[in-house]
Amino acid sequence: MTATPASTAPSFVVRAAAPDDCDAIVALIRGLADYEHLTHLLEVTPAALREHLFGARPFAEAAIARDADGGALGFALWFHNYSTFLGKPGVYLEDLYVVPEARGRGVGQALIGHVGALAVARGCGRFEWSVLDWNESAIGFYESLGATVLPEWRIVRVSGAALESFRRAPGE
Description:
The chain is α+β, with helices and mostly antiparallel strands. 30% of the residues lie in helices and 24% in strands. The chain has a six-stranded mixed beta sheet.
């Protein structure tokens, strides 16, 4: 997908990420973590990302937006899930991030459009993601695209030592 947001702004391209994009994507992930005040949780490395996106068993997919000079402007990372109620696969957008200087130029819309088009082409019944409740600009952006923020749902997460406790099922 190629987009030219405004006549004075340089053009950009959104495309599927390639292994050579992993360094740039990790730098963008650092920008996202900083924006969300979560850098203390950041552990990702380009090597780990490369393995999980392009290794023998890929767990996720990514797209990257680059400007005319090849600079990274943003990324989207997603994976498939499944809706038992719909009986169809879905797409879960794990992260969407655009560098501050590129915001308002259509980069985020192009990235989310890229993922949404893949969801439609793959016959998915849902395209979902989460947003922090304090991120009013993101919520407004998502709603402008037709998304609905579901206030009755809460994210449930098990990680760290609690996740390790699943190593053995109770009673083993």
